[in-house]
Amino acid sequence: MNDATSLLHADVERALNGLTDKKIDHVFFVACGGSLSVMYPGKFLLDSYSRKLASDCLNADEFVQRDPVILGSTSLVILCSMTGTTTVGLSVDTLSPLAQEVDFPIGFEAPYTTGVPIDARDSNYARLYQLVMGLVKAHDGIDKLAPLVASLNNLQPAIDRAHATFEPLFTQYAGQLHGESVIYTLASGASYGAAYSWINSQAVHAGEFFHGPFEVLDRDRAFVLLMGLDRTRPQQERAKVFLERFGSPEKIMVLDAAKLDLDGIDDEFKGNLVPLIFFDTLWKFAYKMANLRNHVMLEGRRYMKKISY
Amino acid sequence: MNDATSLLHADVERALNGLTDKKIDHVFFVACGGSLSVMYPGKFLLDSYSRKLASDCLNADEFVQRDPVILGSTSLVILCSMTGTTTVGLSVDTLSPLAQEVDFPIGFEAPYTTGVPIDARDSNYARLYQLVMGLVKAHDGIDKLAPLVASLNNLQPAIDRAHATFEPLFTQYAGQLHGESVIYTLASGASYGAAYSWINSQAVHAGEFFHGPFEVLDRDRAFVLLMGLDRTRPQQERAKVFLERFGSPEKIMVLDAAKLDLDGIDDEFKGNLVPLIFFDTLWKFAYKMANLRNHVMLEGRRYMKKISY
User: Fold this and answer.
1) Does the complex come out with an ipTM higher than 0.95?
2) In A, which residues are within 8 Å of B25 by CB distance?
C-alpha cells in the first residue's frame, strides 16, 4: 500500500487491494434510478482514462435479465450482487443485504436525500470516483489519486458557493417554470447523469437534441441546459445557441459551470466534478418549484416505498 | 467463404471478410437520432452472444468529444468515420461522405422514412444484425447466421400482419391520445431503441420506471407500453400490472408482441426481431395521431434540414 493509495477511503482501499490479484477487463456499473444516474459520470471517468477496462452502465433489472454473456470471471460488477463474479457494492447501510452479499462493500453517506448536511467527499459519487481512478491506476498505471482526492476534499465548499451563485437564477426560474407540465433538461458527457436524475424533468442528450427532440422547441417550451466543463461542452454550446434562437429567455434556464468558483478543484477533474455540483444544486431548484406547485412528488411520494409493487 | 457466410448481404460479407485479419475486442455502435435507436438492439444482440466483444453505444458527437481512450487499433466502429480505427459505415447512399470515408461501407434502404414500400430485409437494422452475428461467428465461434437470415427474410410479412393486428388499437388510441402533451413510452431490452426512436413520446426504461418516473402516473397520464419477447419481458409485465392498477385503460396503450403472428421467424430471434416490428408499426400510429392533431412534426419539420444550425 503506497502513499497515494492511502489517500483513499478505507472501504475503497480495501476493495482495490482485494482486487489486485484478480484479472479484470470489464466493469459493469449497475444500479437503479438516482443511483444509476451517479454511475453515468463514473463510466465517463473510466472511459476518459482506461485503455484496459471496457464498461457498461445498466439498470439492475436490465442487467440481470439481459445477462450479458461477456459477464464472467474477469468482470467487475459495481453495486449489484452476482454469483461467480467479483462485486463491489456501495451502500449507505453496511448491514444492508447488498453490503452483506458483495465481495467488497463500500459505505457512503447520502446528504441530498436526507437533508442532513454532510460533506460531499462522503457521498456515493466521491467513493465511486475514488474506486474508478484506483482501477485506472492498477490497470493502466496512471496515478491521479492525489489530485482527485484533493479535489473531492474541496468539493463541498464549491457546492456551497454554487448554491449561492445559482440562488437568484433558481428563484427567478422557479417562478417562471413551476406551472410547466414538461421541462426538458439538456446535458451531455459527464453531466448527463445529473440531467437524468432530476425527477421533475425529461433528460435529453444535447447531441441527440438536433436529431429529433429540437422539433418541440418553440417560444412556449421550457428547458434547462446544463453546461459543464468536460470535453463534451461544445454540444452544450451548440444547444445554447439554438435554444436562444428559437426559444424564450424566460423559459430557458442555463446553468453554466463556467460561472462557478471552483477553487481547490484540480483543472484536470473540473469536468468530472461539475456534474456533482449540478446533482446537488438541482435539488434546491426542485424544492423551490415544489413549494410553488404545492406538489406531491417531493413533499411525499405517492408510490415509492409507500405501497408494495 | 463458407455456405453460411454466403447467406449474408454482399456488403456485410465484404466487411466481415475484410475484418478476419484484424484483432478486434471492442465494438462502438455510433450514430445519431433514429440511426442511434437502431444501434441499441444491435448492442443487445451482441451482448446476448459474444463473450469476446465488449461494446458501447454512443451518440456521434458524444463519441467524438468523449474520445474514449480504449478506442484503438483493436476497436471496430460501426457507422462513424475515424482515423486509425477500423470502421464500418451503414449508409443509404454508397457515394455519401460516410460511405467514402469508412473502410467497409454497407448499403441499406430506408422504407419507413421515404414511405416507399421496400422489404425489411434490406433495412439498416437487418444489415446491422447480419454484421453483429457475423462478428459473433468470427470471434465466438457461434454460427447462427442461417436462422437469422431466414428470420430476416420472413420479417416483412410479419410486419405487414402486425400492421393489421395493431390497426384497431391504433385507431382507437389515436383518438384517445392525440390531445396529450406528453406520452411516455415504456420499454426495455431489445425494444428500448424503438421507444427511444419514437419522436412523439418520451422513452422511459421499464426497469427505471419504478425508481422515480412512476410517480407521474395517475388516471390522466398517457402511456404506451412495448411488450417484447426478449429476456427483459418480466420488467414490461411488472410495468403493465402497475399501469393497470393506477392508470386509466383509455390512456394506456399496450403493444404486446405475444399477440402477433411471427410465423417464419426463428424462436431464438423473436426477441431480437420484435423491436423491428415496433419501429415500423409505431410510425403508423404517429401518422394517425398527427392527422388528428394536424401536427407540424410529421407533416413537415420545423428545423431539421430546413434551416442551418
Assistant:
1) no
2) 54
Q: Do B212 and A67 touch (CB under 8 A)?
A: no
B85-116 pLDDT per residue, tens: 678 777 777 777 777 777 888 888 875 555 66
d(CA A105, CA A93): 10
The secondary element (H helix, E strand) that includes residue A268 is helix A267-293
Are B65 and A210 inside 8 Å of each other by CB?
no
**Out of B25, B65, B212, closest to residue A234 by CB:** B65
- DSSP string computed for B75-107: EEEESS--TTSEEEEEES-TTSHHHHHSSEEEE
For chain A, 309 residues long, the average pLDDT of each consecutive 10-residue run is 64 85 86 79 87 88 85 76 64 76 80 69 87 88 92 95 94 91 86 78 84 83 94 92 95 96 96 91 88 63 74
Q: Look at residue B83 in the predicted model and tell me its pLDDT.
A: 47
Which of B32, B50, B61 lies nearest to residue A69, judging by beta carbons? B50
In this structure, which amino acid lies at residue B234? P
Question: Cα–Cα distance between B176 and A118 in angstroms, integer?
Answer: 48
CA-based diameter of chain B, in Å? Answer: 58
Q: What are phi and psi of B209, to 5 degrees?
A: -50, -40
Residue of chain A minimizing CA distance to B64: A232
Q: A59 and B208: CB-CB below 8 Å?
A: yes
**pLDDT-derived band at B189, boundaries 50, 70, 90:** confident
Interface test with B, best of A211, A241, A246, A283 (most B CBs within 10 A): A211
- Sign of the torsion formed by the C-alpha atoms of B125, B126, B129 and B135: negative
Distance from CA of A196 to the nearest CA of B (A): 11
Give the C-alpha separation, B236 to B254, whole Å.
10
Please name the residue of chain B whose CA is at the shortest distance from the CA of residue A61: B207
Residue of A88, A248, A121, A274 lying closest to A189 (CA atoms): A274
Three-state DSSP class for residue A301: coil
CA atoms within 13 A on the CB side of B254: 20
Q: Which residue of A has its CA nearest to B232?
A: A65
Q: pTM for the complete prediction?
A: 0.86
Indicate yes or no: CB of B66 within 8 angstroms of CB of A44.
yes
